[in-house]
Amino acid sequence: MVLAGRSDPPLPLARMRARGELTEIRAADLRFTPDEARALVVAMGVEGLVGPALVRLHQRTEGWAAGLQLAALADRAGSRGVPAVDDDRHVVEYLTAEVLDSLPSVLRDFLVRTSVLERLSAPLCDAVLDHSGSAAILDLLERSDLFVVRLDGQRAWYRCHRMFREALRRELDATAPGEASRLLSRAANWLLAHDHVELAVHHHLAAGDAITAAALLTARMGWFVDNGLAASFLQLGESVVAELDPPDPRLHVMLVFAAGLCGRVDRVAAWLDAAEPLVTDNSPPLPGWSSLRAALLSRRATVAQLRPAPKIPGRTASQRSGCSPAIGSVWRRGGVAALKEGS
Description:
Blueprint lengths: L12 H6 L8 H4 L3 H10 L7 H11 L3 H12 L12 H10 L6 H9 L8 H8 L4 H10 L4 E3 L7 E3 L1 H14 L3 H15 L3 H10 L3 H10 L1 H6 L3 H14 L5 H13 L3 H11 L16 H15 L10 H4 L6 H16 L1
């Protein structure tokens, strides 16, 4: 007997599986490999999908055959010079007509409103949607192969297929403008309460709340340092600063520290120059420092210490250089430990 369907049939599958009486071909088995994707677009006569464009297409579709075919058809029709699956209306129309429109309202609403999340868990979804029951829905979506896959054996975390999530997000923005920011803020609050500080900052920033994101970064720099995430702090901080008006001088100085911990002396100099005109005698100090200006000047002195000394004939490169081979450890001396403990 051969059965085909999107969800498991009401049969004793576990028992049949244990007895070796069952052969299963699941969604993961049907995904196209990069070579199979290449063969498909060649067979369809699509010349534009080659090299990096094809690699990107395969990554976005995650080997989903229908997505590959729709994107290839759009490219063959000459709708774009460069394939861009995320902007292709054919894929969105297909997902809406073939998947979303056939779903019960409860599942549709769940998927559309949780499309703001990159990763899904039952408690997080409950917090974002402000009601319970997400665990059962996530289990049903995964068992029904509705573009939702689990990320661990405990079924604690899931994620949505990239293209499906993009279609869902478009549906959310079209049917409930402004709702995404509110849902993202709820997600950020839950993530912070469960010590996912980096993700909380990401979600506040995605919600358009750069002020809260900046406040969280300045309050929890110690968490990033303790978890070896100085590079993430630097990346997030630079994104937040670009959205802040007026600027926060404390965050500028913290980015100087973060860049130093990452060994990014080039970024240290850039943020020193950016912070200097913002810092005044009345600027709120950083934890562990008497003033913000003192913290800034100490970093300026450290930069001078790390610059190479003048070349002296007859000395080795290591003897000539004033730069420690472990820039991060040098940067930690003279204040980062105090700042981390204070935050």
